[in-house]
Amino acid sequence: MSTPSTASTEPDLLYSEDEEALRAAVRDLLTDHCDPAGVITRMETDAPHDLSLWKSLAEGMGLAGLLVPEEQGGQGASHREVAVVLEELGRAVAPVPYLTSAVVATEALLACTGDAAGELLTALASGRTVGALTVALNVAPGGAYKVVLHEGGVLHGELTGIADATAADVLLVPADDGGLYAVSIDANAVTITPQVSLDLTRPVATIAFDGASARLLGDAEPAVRRALRAGAGLLASEQLGLADWALTETVRYLKDRKQFNRPVGGFQAVKHRLAQLWLEVVGLRAAARSAADALAAGSADSDVAVAVAQSYAAPVAVRAAEEALQLHGGIGMTWEHPTHLCLKRAKADSIAYGTSGGHRATLAELVGLRAP
Amino acid sequence: MTDATELTRLTRELLAAHPPADTGRLDFLRARFDAGLAWVHYPEGLGGLGAPRTLQAVVDAELEAAGAPDNDPRRIGIGLGMAAPTILGFGTEEQKRKFLRPLWVGEEVWCQLFSEPGAGSDLAALGTRAVRSGDEWIVNGQKVWTSSAHLARWAILIARTDPDVPKHRGITYFLCDMTDPGVEVRPLRQITGEAEFNEVFLTDVRIPDAHRLGEVGDGWRVAQTTLNNERVAIGGMRIPREGGMIGPVAKVWRERPELRTHDLHQRLVKLWVEAEVARLTGERTRQQLVAGQPGPEGSGLKLSFARLNQEISGLEVELRGEEGLLYEDWTMRRPELVDFVGRDAGYRYLRSKGNSIEGGTSEVLLNIVAERVLGLPSEPRTDKDVAWKDLAR
């Protein structure tokens, strides 16, 4: 019987001064270039991703390469800084392929050793190339995923639920022979079709490969596992950003909104709900920092820290968005109000990289609390 | 400036002059106090050296390594955590010299006479009366939920000295001699079977004016120091994973596969996650304090731990099945220490019910978070400008 793993040293759960400066810079950019009205308009068009915002973040600020070592063209930063960026992108529900390209696809490439992977890594780090790992968004770290057939040097098959595929320049594709392959979207034999998505700011798509030519990058299994673990762990910071926005915005609104000749935020039934939510957001901040710090340190406790953060994050983010909607009253139900951006992202995130329940099952094994 | 090197030197000097092996416990503690190594952040002459509070750890580690006795802080928690900082903040020089040394060495146990049957969450509505008579105050009233009252030599007491002004303004803070013939302490038996607390009846208790702390009518402000220190004492501890109430139930789960069901498993893992997140939140709060950036996060910790203790211990009773029908011992006892975890699951379940009441009810704490952290409007205050004697009761 296994015993609980114990963290040898406590993680650093604070934000450094540099991290706070990074947050301020990203928030400034998003305040100026990612207002909710613009996001709402854009998401119903044929180009739901904001590629000009992506260019500012990735090329202008160099944020696409945070996880990539400097000698490979990146910034040589860590998951801690990426987490701060994701908090801010979450707050704004920014329609950019940051999590999918700068985290998940990048981590997959970091697990591969060959020259092909190295070149691609540098391209992704620059932000000029956007990558997407073709594993459905709902797959958890260690979970089963669909592969395509690799025959005679080309790929055949169809995949669904691939997040941000319509924004990608290159696809990282696990195949049936155990290899991870790079496929350019310019290849004739690749067809990407957007699916009508619950979250239009991180839309999913189907991808059909009909004899697409592909370059081998490395082994798929370790690359996918590493990519999804980082994706899941850092998603918690995006969820924190969503929850924090929902709480802050709701509190702001309810101080102002008056009914029965009083601010609605002065009613105790409402105050207690918001205070309760604040407690949960504070908890999520600690859990998300713990996961980011463990990933950054390559800690032996990373699997536990990620599973804890993902077990906790989704219910908090979804509840925060749902509370925001309810406490805004009728205005929260309208298309023009930003609450639905937060709700749809939070709900989609509750499925992304594994559900809360799935992560709890993983955690139970990790800490020796076996199911009957 | 007293730095770590200097403190190490002073501690070694103390140990050399008073070798713990050949020195009586109280004698050693008194010598430690007089050397300024009791609480290094206190002023010189009052057990300290005016050093940064964080350097206390240097002294403690040195003394522990040398096998020196400590002052058994759990037995004198109210004195150390609540009475002492208030006396330090508001006491006269004479009061500080008289009370702090025996308090710290543990010769004199302190208790707190604050809550009353009619003044719980609304503590400022308290009705215990103190009436001036020459150089003395005559005190009459009833206090409740007083832990250690049966052991205490002294009490911090707040009483009403002016019923004609609004409630917060007519209160005065006293240091009450628990051996006064007018003080009667009766055990108050709880749902756990034991009497951790007492009721204290005060009948014509005479308190010299020299034992008043702070100005007449300023007792509410003085009491804020006491209560703020109570909250500081609750946060700030480092807890290992599974260090709280989840530990015993996880152990039973691992050792007793025959008790496992799917429903219990779902609930257990969910609570394990919440306990770990609460632990990380506490750790984050601690790191903020150490970094000199205290945040508001600490105000939520007690709320989280109260709920978790209740839910986890409730689950444990259920998990134990037939054993959950039993209880270790209902014998009426008066324990010296408060113990949330040490006894059986049934005790933990019952005792933790108090966690959302003692030290501020969860309902009041949610109001505090909503108002002070989130900045939401305060509850309507109908009692603000009403004389205490005219309040509804």
From TrEMBL, chain A:
Belongs to the acyl-CoA dehydrogenase family. It holds the Pfam family Acyl-CoA_dh_N. The keyword Cell division does not apply. One of its GO terms (molecular function) is flavin adenine dinucleotide binding. Keywords: FAD, Flavoprotein, Oxidoreductase. It comes from Streptomyces lacrimifluminis. This is Acyl-CoA dehydrogenase. Its cofactor is FAD. InterPro entries: Acyl-CoA_Oxase/DH_mid-dom_sf, AcylCo_DH-like_C, AcylCo_DH/oxidase_C, AcylCoA_DH/ox_N, AcylCoA_DH/ox_N_sf, AcylCoA_DH/oxidase_NM_dom_sf. Residues 16-127 form the Acyl-CoA dehydrogenase/oxidase N-terminal domain. The lineage of its organism: Bacteria, Bacillati, Actinomycetota, Actinomycetes, Kitasatosporales. Residues 224-365 form the Acyl-CoA dehydrogenase/oxidase C-terminal domain.
TrEMBL record, chain B:
Residues 27-107 form the Acyl-CoA dehydrogenase/oxidase N-terminal domain. Residues 217-374 form the Acyl-CoA dehydrogenase/oxidase C-terminal domain. Keywords: FAD, Flavoprotein, Oxidoreductase. Its cofactor is FAD. GO terms for molecular function: flavin adenine dinucleotide binding; oxidoreductase activity, acting on the CH-CH group of donors. InterPro entries: Acyl-CoA_Oxase/DH_mid-dom, Acyl-CoA_Oxase/DH_mid-dom_sf, AcylCo_DH-like_C, AcylCo_DH/oxidase_C, AcylCoA_DH/ox_N, AcylCoA_DH/ox_N_sf, AcylCoA_DH/oxidase_NM_dom_sf, Mycobact_Acyl-CoA_DH. Belongs to the acyl-CoA dehydrogenase family. This is Acyl-CoA dehydrogenase. It comes from Streptomyces lacrimifluminis.
